[in-house]
Design a protein that fits this description.
20 strands, 15 helices, alpha+beta, 508 residues
């Protein structure tokens, strides 16, 4: 007879079957929808005979819905070994709390097994210790460990000093602190000396020549001679090296004047001078010029982009906050490998308008999916460089007053790029959000290379029976409740819908 019981009642009945089961625990429930079968996986610190496993099976059949065609039981013997527990704690924190584990070493996890109780200590920096305490990470870790080992767990933290000095040659130096400096250059050919035999044949891209002493090259697009008030001749020379254009002023010398006068439009030169400001405008004063041949096979190199930072500076993620209706046993559903084996960041942006080149970001909301579960959230309001219109306020509810003390997007981008580093990006109508993200990341010399999945396109393929596939319709279809047009709420709704879509897509 099918009898509904609570998890604790059911486990008590199983433990009462035999003294060796006194510490037995239900580790997982595996369901095969296609075969309509269910499997209860138990862990126990003592060996369990086949006869006793049959008795456990009978107990599980009593509380299993008749909707399942078959019921199975597996009992695994697991001992609470301190080394195994240490490794499991370190792995769990690394997978689920990367913002904490970045400063955590395996030796910073210390556990002690005392009978049926395991006490462990996490040696963390002050910020890391506060994070795991305030966000309930220790409680979640305890619950996780209790499903892996036949023990009860109590965790605490210990403050350790953060490393204050790092060798510049050490691999531990964060790339965000020591970004690569690259000068893109053009190697000219057939240099003919006019002014300087020591100038060489390497020139900086005009696009990169922004200030100070520089050497550039290019083909002359225009050249004009002018006279100063004191009747001293000078030239205004316009150059193009295919990466950019510049104009410079060159004051002639008596001993080289006749050679400079021979220069015409189309000739190539390499020139050394200084770039500064004159009456608020950029000014290039050329000091030396040599003739040359511009390389025919020149191919412009992409500008170096900074790598995502390895730590957060301003906006820190926090533990995910979802409210779910759970089953009696709170079992982990079998999820497709595509969800479990990849890390996803589902994000949403609120903006001042639709045109990416003439509008700014007012809010970022994102959640991270690790192992098929939403684990962390990233959210912040942003003060845009564009006006928030009344129409925009009506849509998003975000006002000028709300964002007046918020950071600018340039300060937020590095932290967000750290949050999404190594993840597959997911967004509903992803083209819109990714265009804004790439524009403002590019302004800070970052490049967004993440693979992007559009949940709108996924929904169209999986749910063709729906007349519309906007986020509100998809959320209604899956019974997901959210407050539309706020970034974090939209990100949560998209993430939950994406998980359901992926389960359907890979259910076969």
């Amino acid at each position: 007879m099918y009898t509904l019981k609570s998890n604790s009642e059911f486990i008590s009945d199983v433990r009462a079957l035999d003294p060796c089961l006194k510490n037995a625990r239900l580790s997982a429930i595996e369901i095969d929808r296609k075969a309509k079968s269910i499997k209860y996986v138990f862990i126990c610190d003592e060996a369990v005979s086949e006869d006793l496993q049959r008795k456990i099976l009978k107990e599980t059949e009593k509380i299993t819905s008749p909707a399942f065609a078959s019921v199975h039981v597996a009992v695994r013997k697991i001992a609470s070994n301190d080394e195994l527990i240490n490794n499991e704690i370190y792995r769990y924190l690394s997978d689920n709390y990367p913002s904490v584990s970045i400063f955590l070493k395996p030796t910073d996890v210390v556990c002690t097994v005392v009978g049926h109780l395991v006490k462990y200590v996490l040696r963390l920096t002050k910020d890391g210790a506060e994070y795991v305490t305030k966000n309930g990470a220790l409680n979640k870790l305890n619950d996780y460990l209790a499903k892996k080992f036949c023990s009860d767990f109590v965790g605490s933290t210990e403050i350790k000093e953060a490393d204050e000095t790092l060798s510049l040659l050490s691999e531990e130096v964060y790339e965000s602190e020591l970004q690569k400096i690259e000068h893109r250059t053009i190697k000219v050919e057939n240099v003919i000396i006019i002014d300087d035999e020591n100038m060489g044949d390497l020139a900086l891209y005009i696009e990169d020549a922004t200030a100070g002493e520089v050497t550039v090259c290019g083909k002359i697009t225009d050249i004009k001679e002018r006279m100063t008030k004191k009747n001293k001749p000078f030239l205004i020379i316009h150059l193009d090296d295919t990466t950019g254009r510049t104009s410079g002023v060159y004051f002639s010398r008596k001993n080289t004047y006749h050679k400079i006068k021979e220069l015409v439009v189309g000739d190539a030169i390499i020139a050394r001078g200084s770039i500064g400001d004159y009456e608020g405008k950029k000014s290039f004063t050329i000091d030396k010029i040599n003739r040359c041949t511009f390389p025919e096979n020149f191919v412009k190199k992409d500008k170096y982009k900074k790598t995502p930072p390895k730590n957060y500076k301003l906006i820190f993620p926090s533990e995910a906050k979802t409210i779910k209706v759970k089953s009696v046993f709170d079992y982990d559903e079998r999820l497709p490998d595509e969800l479990v084996n990849n890390t996803y960041v589902v994000f949403d942006l609120e903006t001042t308008g639709l045109d990416v080149m003439n509008n700014g970001i007012t809010e970022i909301g994102a959640v991270k999916i690790v192992g098929g579960k939403i684990t962390e959230q990233f959210t912040t309001l942003v003060k845009p460089d564009y006006r928030i219109t009344e129409e925009n306020v009506a849509i998003t509810g975000i006002t000028e007053e709300m964002v007046k003390d918020s950071p600018r997007i340039g300060a937020v981008i590095p932290d967000f790029l750290h949050f999404i580093d190594g993840a597959i990006l997911v967004a509903h109508n992803a083209d819109f959000d990714t265009k804004f993200l790439k524009r403002f990341a590019g302004a800070e010399e970052y490049e967004v290379k993440n693979k992007v999945v559009d949940s709108l396109e996924v929904a169209r393929g999986i749910l063709p029976q729906l007349r519309r596939h906007d986020l509100h319709t998809i959320a209604d279809h899956f019974g997901i409740v959210f407050h539309h047009h706020r970034a974090l709420s939209d990100a949560y709704a998209t993430a939950e819908a994406f998980i359901e879509l992926m389960k359907i897509k890979y259910s076969e």
